[in-house]
Amino acid sequence: MTHLALASDVRSGDAHPARNGGIPLDLSWVQDVRINLSAAERRVASLPGRRSVKKDAQAAWLLKAVTCMDLTTLNGDDTAERVKRLCAKARSPVRPDVLAALGMAERGVTTGAVCVYHRFVATAVDALAGSGVPVAAVSTGFPAGLAPHDVKLREIEASVRDGAAEIDIVITREHALTGNWTALYQEMRDFRAACGNAHVKAILATGDLKTLRNVVRASLVCMMAGADFIKTSTGKEGVNATRLVTLAMIRAIRDYHGRTGAIVGYKPAGGISTAKDILDYQILMKEELGRPWLEPTLFRIGASSLLADIERQLEHHVTGRYSAFNRHPMS
Predict the structure, then answer these.
(1) 58: number of CA atoms within 13 Å, CB side?
(2) Is the dihedral of CA 319, 87, 80, 198 positive or negative?
(3) Average pLDDT value for the chain
(4) Which of 15, 42, 163, 287 has the most crowded Cβ, counting Cβ within 10 A?
(5) 202 domain-assigned
(6) How many CA atoms lie within 13 A of 285 on its CB side?
(7) CDD domains, from UniProt (predicted)?
């Protein structure tokens, strides 16, 4: 088996880059956003035909994707036992015999994080103790984001007290839809302050924002306000992560980095369910932002069913046989 170069240092992203401290709101920058929609559509349409990742290379890219997953359960019927089982999966997301066959048995492969509601933060923190896998909490009235502002702040603070190292907040979509960028900026600043040392991911709910221009403007405002990551979706909207929205958001990250020097991560979430899908997202990250954005410190994938398909692909690479999905439960 050829050495899996891309995945060989799967823990190399453990040290976070300097956090994005934010900048004063620059409304002229926000208002100047323009989108060449036809060019963006051509760019993402070209992905499947332009690049073919096969065999050992594909296995390496997929194993790297596992280390960038925020393994997630956000259901109304979640229980403490389900969360504990999910945490056990996060500790050991790929079967040991498959890892051994890939030459990765000693590499400490885990997922990037486990993402749960506030109610289960303490449960997940206990279940993941000693693993190095952080707990992310969805907050601020997830998924609609329509709770009173003071309640949102208290929810963030409670999750941080319970041990959440990352907070996935949801913005008030009304601010973006009505162009009230000052209100969105102040909201995000408040969320950032309430998170303290916990990293904050700003969920834009891009499927609700109607236009790519709104998506890019909201991305810029949240980064100006200090978001450590920008994230597409809650997974509960009618349209969640897409390649087109991803291109728009990561080019906003590139623009922000170019103007400020600050480094911001990206998290697509919702609707990414196959290994073939995630390869397109990884290729976009590599080509648009560069190699550092393939690490879990700067790239996360909100996923649950995706892991099962990646496991199947890795097992097929090793054994030549596909296994059934029901052999790869999440929790």
Answers:
(1) 20
(2) negative
(3) 92
(4) 163
(5) yes
(6) 24
(7) DeoC (cd00959)
d(CA 184, CA 201): 14
Query: The whole model's pTM is what?
Result: 0.93
Query: What domain range includes position 190?
Result: 27-327
Structural domain includes residue 319? yes
Structure tokens at 12: 């190399």
Catalytic positions, please? 168, 231, 267
Tokens of 163: 């041990």
Three-class SS of residue 210? coil
| 308 belongs to a structural domain | yes
DSSP lists the bridge partners of residue 137 as 116, 167
Q: Mean per-residue pLDDT for 15-23?
A: 89
Length of the chain, please?
331
As a whole number of Å, the end-to-end CA separation of the chain is 31
Cβ distance 110 to 87 under 8 Å? no
Beta bridge partners of 276: none
Helix axes 212-224, 243-260, angle to 10 degrees: 40
What's the number of domains the chain is made of? 1
Q: What amino acid occupies position 310? A: I
pLDDT tier for residue 321 given thresholds of 50, 70 and 90: confident
The encoded tokens of residue 162 equal 């319970």
Sole residue written with tokens 């969640």: 240
Sign of CA dihedral 93, 314, 245, 223: positive
Each residue of 204-239: pLDDT tens digit?
A: 999 999 999 999 999 999 999 999 999 999 999 999
Tens digit of each residue's pLDDT (9 = 90 or more) over 126-163: 999 999 999 999 999 999 999 999 999 999 999 999 99
Quick check: helix, strand or coil at residue 200?
strand
Burial class (CB in 10 A: 0-12, 13-18, 19+), 30: buried
Buried b (16+ CB within 10 A) or exposed e, 84-116: bbbbebbbebbbeebbebbebeebebbbbbbbb
Q: Name the residue among 50, 54, 64 with its Cα closest to residue 2.
A: 54
pLDDT at 3: 43
Residue 176 belongs to domain with CATH number = 3.20.20.70
- Tokens linked to 293: 């954005």
